[in-house]
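Encode chain A's predicted structure.
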Amino acid sequence: MSDLDLLRALYDYRVDLALWVLCSVLVYAAAVNLRRYLRTRPETRIGRLLVRFEGWPHSLWVVEGLRFLYYLGIPYLALTRGVVSPNLMGLWDPGWLQQAWFGQLALGTALGLAGLVLLLWGWRHFLLASAQIDQGRADAPYPLQRRLLVAPWGWGQIVLEVLYLEMHWALYRSAALRLLDPYYGVFAGLAVVLAELCLNPEVRRDLGMPRRKGETLTTMATAFVVSIIYYFTANLWLCLAVHLIIQLGLLSFLELSPQSLDHKRQQDQ
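Encoded structure for chain A:
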């Protein structure tokens, strides 16, 4: 028996959970930091290869394929190997469709809509403040997502991105729930999500700037809202639906924000 087999026998499922979460976090950290490192050194051999790859017409398909394998493949493998359970991930529960479940559904929907209202309120004041500082029109964030929103079938990419995040977050949350009670497990999973996000150099740079763009804080706030909803409902599908409503509602608001900002400035004059 190898040392690893002995360790797995001693700690049973805890080692599996720790290894799966740790490997997932390390893969994410290595990918985002290596990409950032190579982009700052295009004169190196590997940097030149990255530039050539990004200029290749089919590079987007390769990148999306790798992202699909990471965000959906790892949770799928964890489920099929029994590392995490469908119940803890929120994929299914025998108590669904009973009378109490409908009350949880209403509560989760109300919490999600309240989160959307708070985010819209925060973004409105952020854009107004930015416009006053810039002495002109504030640039609305999420430029790519807003273009996808109005493009034919562009909403499908937005749905896919939300599905990626929700499955990824559910993996970390379900691992924490197997080790802790529901309250601490939900927020321990959230802590892993936020810690992983901060491993991204772009996120760290954005958080360290005096004038943040807001996308990072919005993602963190959405993760918090989704965690609260899961705590009360244990329903990943509801979390996914609420996340999608928040994302589409926020993008729709930002798409209309230039007109609203112009109207607000005219009223103030």
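The CA atoms of residues 146 and 251 lie 6 Å apart.
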